[in-house]
From TrEMBL:
Domain of life: Bacteria
Pfam families: Sulf_transp
Organism of provenance: Acetobacterium bakii
Upper classification of the organism: Bacteria, Bacillati, Bacillota, Clostridia, Eubacteriales
Chaperone as UniProt keyword: no
Transmembrane region(s): 12-33, 39-55, 76-98, 110-135, 147-168, 188-208
Signal peptide extent: none
Keywords in alphabetical order: Membrane, Transmembrane, Transmembrane helix
Record's protein name: Transporter
Amino acid sequence: MPSSKGTNLNRINSQFHWGIIFFFILLAVGLLLSTHSRLISIYWLTGIALGYILQRSRFCFTAATRDPFLTGSTTITRAVLIGLGLTTIGFAGIKFFFATWGLPIPGQEYIQGIGLSTIVGGVFFGIGTVLASGCASGMLMRIGEGYHLQIITLIFFFIGSILGNIHLEWWNQNFVLIPEGIFLPDVFGWLGALGIQLAVIVGLYVLAVKWEEKHDD
């Protein structure tokens, strides 16, 4: 009778071999896509790389806000804050470069109005992510790991997105207080906006450290 240790070793070897085969299949698909559009092939390879990093690191935006209350751990919370700090500096530099040269600032079309819809949307999204045990990226990652329940979550994610898009104009007309949104550099200048955002991130990081220390005692 084969031992469980030998069975597990064979399973690991089998997974490794299938992983190598699957990797080359993904690479071949990327090369095929590059014959039609180089940009699409870049998206393809970038998505695969990000998915691998998320899966191996167990990085989850939902866990960043959920774990401090459930387990007291703020490890992922601090990782997200570090990521936000780095991207804040990077994107501020890119936008400042475009603004300095009188070019259209990239990403301005994503500045949305602020109002009750923002709060309601955040509450519903928060409830959904807790019930689903993950955000959009975590959901896709778990589907890849074989969690069939997340497929149901994905279906309702689509349904919710479609319904939200259908009713978006109604919310914008009735519950948005600042239709044009707020672009902080227009209010505080580039250096001031960068300083304020980084100060908030650093403050949250310090709070996260103290929160974990408090729950470790």
